[in-house]
Amino acid sequence: MSAADLVVSGPSREPTRHSLTTRIVIYGLLIVFALVYIVPLVVMVNTSLKPLDEVTGGNMFALPQHLTFQPWVRAWGEARIGVSETAGIAGYFANSIRMVVPAVLISTVLGALNGYVLTKWRFPGHALVFGLMLFACFIPFQSVIIPMAVILGMLGHIGNELRDATGWSLGFGNPTVNLVIVHVIYGLGFTTLFFRNYYEAFPTELVRAAMMDGAGFFQIFRRILLPNSTPIIIVTVIYQFTNIWNDFLFGSTFAAGDSSPMTVALNNLVNTSTGVTEYNVNIAAAIIAAGPTLFVYIVGGRYFVRGLMAGAVKG
Amino acid sequence: MATLEIKGLRKRFGALEILKGIDITLEKGGFLVLVGPSGCGKSTLLNTIAGLESISSGEIRIGGRVVNDLHPSRRDIAMVFQSYALYPNMSVGENIAFGMEMRGVAKPERDKAVAAVAKTLQIEHLLQRRPGQLSGGQRQRVAMGRALVRQPSVFLFDEPLSNLDAKLRVDMRVEIKRLHQTTGTTIVYVTHDQIEAMTLATKIAVLKDGEVQQVGSPSEIYNMPTNLFVADFMGSPAMNLLEGKVARADGAPGIVIERQDHPPIVAPVPASADVSKLADGAKVIFGIRPEAVNDMESIDRNAKLIVKFEAKVELVEPAGSDTFVVTRAAGTELTARMRADADLKVGQNHTFAFNLDKALLFDPATTRRI
Questions:
Q1: DSSP label at A9?
Q2: pLDDT of residue A184
Q3: Which of B4, B82, B276, B355 could form a disulfide with B159 if both were Cys (CB 3.0 to 4.6 A apart)?
Q4: Contact criterion met (CB below 8 Å) for A93 and A267
Q5: To 10 degrees, the CA torsion angle through B89, B94, B97, B101?
Q6: For the segment A8-38, what is each residue's pLDDT rounded down to a tens digit?
Q7: Is B10 helix (H, G, I), strand (E, B) or coil?
Q8: Residues of A with CB below 8 A from B82's CB?
C-alpha cells in the first residue's frame, strides 16, 4: 500500500481499473488452485457413488448414472480385508479410534506438563533435557522399530506375569495399548516442543501471582496455564491426531490381524490380489479413512494457523 | 501492618552477586521505595522479600517472624506486579477471589470480601468483566484489589505505574498515596522513577549495583545525599556537579570553580561541608541543585550565603512553570531553574547566583559527601 492510499479524503473511494485487474488475477489464481485441490476429492466421491461397471467402463469425471451407496456400505461392513475373518473396515476404524484418542490425549497432556516445567519451574540442566527431547523429533521411525519391539516384548512379558499373578495384565502386551505407548513416546518430543515454545512467551508474572495466591504446582497448571493454552492445545491435537491416525509403519509392525489400525486395513483391502479390484469400494474406504483427519482440520484449522504463528514468532 | 527487617541479605547467581549485603528496616505503616537504575537489584530485592526468589544468606523478617524459607503465600504479603498479572481467563471478581479460593475460603465469604474491596476501589461495575476488556487504569485497580483483599502485613509493588500513560500515572500515584494514608499499611514499592519515589515514600532506599547507597526520608535523600551517585540520581533536572578546588585566602576557606571565558567563581564553603581537613588546592566536587541556581531577583530571600557570577546563556528551555537555563562552568553544563517569565536570550551574559545554603561538597576520590 502506498502513502497515497492511506490518505483517503472522500467518504468512499471508487475502485480503480488497476485494482480490478489485480482482483481478476488474484481470484483467477485462487480459483485455479482451488480446482487443483478439489478435483481429486470430487473424482473420489464421484467414483465411490458409482456401480463397479460404470467405474471400469466409463470416464472418471462422468457423473454416476445409477447413484449407489452400496460401495460405502460394502467398504464399511462387508468387504474382505486381507485374510481376516472380519468383514469391512468398521472394526479397524474402531481400532484406530481406540488407539488415537488416548495417544493424543496422553501425549498432549504430558507435552503441556513438560513445557510448563521446562519454562516455569526450571532446574539445572533444563536446556539439555529439552535438547534431548527435541532429538525425538529428528529420529526416523524406521530406526527405532527394533529397539521398540524389544521393549514392547518385555512389556508383554510383564503383562503375562501380572496376569498370572493378579489376573490383570493392565493392558501390557495388548497391541492397541502397545501402539498407544509407541505413539505417546514418539509424539512427546513434538508436543513438548510446541508447549515449551508457547509457554516460553507465557508471562511468568502470572505464575508468580498464582504462587503468591497460594496455588500449588498442579493448581497453577490447571487453573492458569491450561485455560490460556487453547491455540497451542488445538495445534498439538491436530498435529498428533493426524500423525497417529495416518501412521502405517508402527501400525503394521506392532499390531497384526484384527487389531490393526485403519491404515493397515485400508492397505490390505486395496492390495488384495484375489478377485476383481472394486475401485469404488476401495475409494469409499479411503475416504472413510481420511474422514477423521479432515474433520479435525475443518473444526480446528482456524486455530492451527494462529497457534503455529504464535509459536513461530515467540520461539 | 508490621515491620519489615532485612539484615545482611545476599543473593548470588553462581559467581555473580546481585545483592551485596542489604540492611533495611521499615517501621510499621511505613512506605519504603526502592529506587535505582535498571539492573541495580531493586526488583530482585523485592522478589526475595516476596519469596519468589531464594536468598543466599541473610535474614528477612516480617512482623518479627523470619520468613526466609516460607512459601510466598505464607509470608502474609501481597504483591502488585508490573504487568498487573491478572489471570486472563477469569473475570475481575474471580481474579480478586482466586487467592481466597486457594486458601479454601467459603464462597459467600469470598463474595463479601470482593464486594468490599471493589467498593473501596470503585470497580464494582467491572466485576463480571475479563481483564482483556479493561483499560490500563482499571487493570491497575483490579491488581490492587487482588492485593488488598488479602489484608496482608506488607504490600509489595513492582513498578506498578510504568505501563500507564503520563496523566494516568499521576492519578494512580495520588490514589496509591491515599490508599496508604487511609489504610496505614506497610508498603514496599519498586520504581526507577525518582518523582514517584519522592512523592510516595516515607523512606527511600537508593540502590546501585546491589548495594544500598543511602536510606533515608525523601528530604534527607534529596537535600543531603551521601554520595555523588545519589546526588546525581535523585532530582530532575539532575544536580549540577562542578569540579572545584579548596582555596584559603586570608584564612577563610573557599571553593574556586574555574571557567573558560569568565573569571573563576569563588564561593565560600557551604555550611553543610567541613573542609578543615582538606589541604589548599584539594579537589572537590561542588554540588548544587538547579533550583538553588538563580538570578538576584528571584533567589531565595532567606538564603544566608549567596554568591553571584556572570555567565553566558547557552540554552533556554521553557517548561511552563519554570524556565531552565543552561550555562557553563568548570567545563560542564550548569542548569539554573528560573521563574517562568525570565527574559533571557541565548548568547547573552547574565548575572546568576548560587544559594550556598543548599550547596554540597563531595570528595571526587571516594565520591562521598564532605
A1: -
A2: 94
A3: B82
A4: no
A5: -70
A6: 444 455 555 668 889 999 999 999 999 999 9
A7: strand
A8: 205
Residue for cell digits 461495575?
A: B125
Quickly state the pLDDT bin for B269 (edges 50, 70, 90).
confident
Which domains does chain A show, CATH number per domain? 3-14+90-311 (1.10.3720.10)
CB-CB neighbors (< 8 A) of A215 in chain B = 73, 98, 102
CA-based nearest residue in chain B for residue A222 = B89
Record the pTM. Answer: 0.80
- Per cent of chain B over pLDDT 70 is 99
The DSSP line for B272-308 is T---TTSPTT-EEEEEE-GGGEE-TTTS-TT-S-EEE
Chain B: closest CA distance from residue A30 (Å): 36
CB distance A213–B50 less than 8 Å? no
**pLDDT digit string (tens) for B278-306?**
888 889 999 999 999 988 888 888 888 88
CB within 8 Å: A210 and B88: no
Contact yes or no for B73 and A213 at CB 8 A: yes
Residues of A in contact with B98 (CB under 8 A): 210, 213, 215, 223
A122 exposure class (CB count in 10 Å sphere: 0-12, 13-18, 19+): exposed
How many residues does the structure list for chain B? 370
